[in-house]
Specification:
CATH architecture: Beta Barrel
Helix content: 25-40%
Number of strands: 9
CATH topology: Small Protein B, Chain: A
Number of helices: 4
Strand content: 35-45%
Largest sheet: 7 strands, antiparallel
CATH class: Mainly Beta
Order of helices and strands: EHEHEEEEEHEEH
Structural class: alpha+beta
Number of domains: 1
Strand order of the largest sheet: 1-8-9-2-7-5-4
Radius of gyration: 19 Å
Distance between the termini: 41 Å
């Protein structure tokens, strides 16, 4: 599995509840652009409309060597999920404060492009600050341990 891009902001802003793997319905120029690494998942989300899931506001830059029928960078893209998964996601999203966000885009060993999406609940500002403090304390402890091991 080769990771193309990771939505780092998602792990900072959300608490991940459940993860799913989905395929993407893409055009040829989008695939070539993704292979070149010209994709950004920041501020994107998944929306369910009429029993179909769509990736909204994911930016895939236009492929420079494509012909006149190049893709639109910010268009909505259909996610390929099973009907039961879409139904389960839809039921969970109806609860307050839960949304569906993309975590990472990657290639499978067969060369297919997949996206990992997650049910997530937004973190409050004080939760984010607490997490940063915990990371700093852990980092400082590890630094001290390395120092004392060298002595």
């Amino acid at each position: 599995m080769k990771i193309i891009t990771v939505n780092r902001k998602a792990f900072h802003d959300y608490e991940i509840l459940d993860k799913f793997e989905a395929g993407l319905a893409l055009t040829g120029s989008e695939v070539k652009s993704i292979r070149a690494g010209m994709v950004n998942l920041k501020d994107s989300y998944v929306e369910i409309r009429e029993r179909e899931a769509f990736l909204i506001s994911a930016h895939i830059s236009q492929y420079s060597n494509a012909s006149y029928n190049n893709h639109e960078p910010g268009r909505r893209r259909k996610l390929l999920l099973r009907r039961q998964e879409i139904h389960r996601l839809d039921q969970r999203v109806k609860t307050r404060g839960v949304s569906i966000i993309p975590l990472q885009l990657y290639f499978t060993p067969r060369g297919l492009i997949k996206i990992e999406i997650a049910l997530a609940k937004g973190k409050r500002e004080y939760e984010k600050k607490q997490r940063i403090k915990e990371k700093d304390v852990r980092r400082e402890m590890e630094r001290d341990l390395r120092y004392y091991k060298k002595r």
